[in-house]
Amino acid sequence: MSAVALDQIAETAPKDALLRVNNVEVIYDHVILVLKGVSLSVPEGGIVALLGANGAGKSTTLKSISNLLRAERGEVTKGSIELLGEKVHHLTANDLVKRGCVQVMEGRHCFEHLTIEENLLTGAYTRGGGSEVKADLEKIYEYFPRLKERRKSQAGYTSGGEQQMCAIGRAMMAKPKLILLDEPSMGLAPQLVEQIFQIVKQLNENEGVTFLLAEQNTNVALRYADYGYILESGRVVMDGEADALLSNEDVKEFYLGLSKEGRKNFREVKHYKRRKRWL
Amino acid sequence: METIATLLGVDPFDLWFFVEVLVGGLMAGVMYSLVALGFVLIFKASSVFNFAQGVMVLFAALNFVGFLDMGIPVWLCFILAMGVMVLLSFVIERVVLRPLVNQPHISLFMATIGIAIFLEGFGEMLWGSSIKPLDVGIPDDVFFLGEAMIQQNDMFAAVVASVLVIALALFFHYTRIGRALRAVADDHQAALSIGIPLNHIWIIVWSVAGFVALVAGIMWGSKLGVQFSLTVLALKALPVLILGGFTSIPGAIVGGLIIGAGEKLSEIYLVDAIQSFYPSFSGAIEEWFAYILALAFLVFRPQGLFGEKIIERV
């Protein structure tokens, strides 16, 4: 093997992985096989994107890490999940939050009848109280000035964008090392999506929070992420540096609607006929 | 044509008589509210209608009066009885709630019926089934507000209920645990996702409901004696809940007040009015007034006066 190739391997293999998912299989309700052996790793301080269509298993992967699966009658039947080298798949969600891994759920899931400020404070539940929490609240308001304006409104009556900010801010209040961010762009206008991703990038750079985000909006996700995994029917079919994926012909065709002939008319796209199989 | 007012030999349109009836009704309503509060707490945190709440009132009162009969001082009895309710919460969480996580609500509801039957039997096994008088020194005199006669123990119940409600409201709004309880009530999954342990929350909420049951049990026990018919109170709490809304603590209080006052006033004035054109009407509106009112609410305002509107995206 040439020196160049070895170098490449050394670079793509993450040095100090914060999170390592090894060959995880997830079964819902004892019968429905959703993840068929997913492996991925998230380096400390990175932003990693998990891409794929509906039902590919993005959310399930995130939930198997944060262990919210049990509440949906799902269970990890094979493989292992390691957070900072510790096997965590038997821990409860509460233990995981204490160890610094918080999930922001798909569809935001703010506490509707609580005010924005109460939502944020609830995020610090596992830390107890104290002046530190107050200081962190102010910090969150600096990142999300909009939330400060709406702090006294019930979250149920705020807009989708504000709710998404609230959900991310709430997760930040737990002082996490890793945030699992599920579909932050869902139902938001393109401009807002851009804004949310910019804040994610800021949090990543300034606060050192690592992000693993699941997205359908491949384009935006890859522009902000360092590394990406593409999931298809419960398997990782492709992974690579974000730039490499963005310029990959298959990704362009299947996820960005672009091909060599340029942008296609939607009617002419051969619906889901793949040129080749990855696996 | 004999109404209660004529039987008593008073003019039903005398202002002080009206005040007396109204205050008496409001005070009776407060007693219903005390029972209804326990339902609201558990319903808020777990969307479960706790059928056992009425029996918990009885069970708490039985323990209290049992300890009292052993010659233990009142304050210690209160602490011991509270300890039993906390212990009960631990057992219920471990044995009933935890295995039923993620099961349909109806399963949990059925389970609370089981708890009710068990507690009733268990209480009888421990303390026997005779009626026990309870005297914790609540003043039992009357005083006059203008010319209206008011029972001191009714007044006392009102004070206790107000203190309880204010304390609960402060607890729910300004403490970390209280916020977490409301968060769980809003969205179980989101609460899990930020690390709120649901089983702790359940133990806390059942303990608080146990505390409310104990207070209600002592108040009702002093009024009627501790007896097994106290469990029927749960039936009167139901219209209170429908009126006030299952999820609202102030709702439980206001609902109780409306039902209490409504019952008494309708007994005096509505009976009068009906008898004026239908002389053979014999009254006893008090018995069913609450349920008819609740029925009307179910038709026109199912979430109750203060219940949280169900925000549903279509």
Automatic annotation (TrEMBL), chain A:
Alphabetical list of InterPro entries matching this protein: AAA+_ATPase, ABC_transporter-like_ATP-bd, BCAA_Transport_ATP-bd_LivF, P-loop_NTPase
Transport listed as a keyword: yes
Keyword Manganese: no
PROSITE patterns noted in UniProt: ABC_TRANSPORTER_2 (PS50893)
Keywords: Amino-acid transport, ATP-binding, Nucleotide-binding, Transport
GO biological process, one term: L-amino acid transport
Molecular functions per Gene Ontology: ATP binding; ATP hydrolysis activity; branched-chain amino acid transmembrane transporter activity
Domain annotation ABC transporter: ranges: 19-258
Pfam families (UniProt xref): ABC_tran (PF00005)
Similarity comment text for this entry: Belongs to the ABC transporter superfamily.
UniProt name for this protein: ABC transporter ATP-binding protein
Organism listed in the record: Pacificispira spongiicola
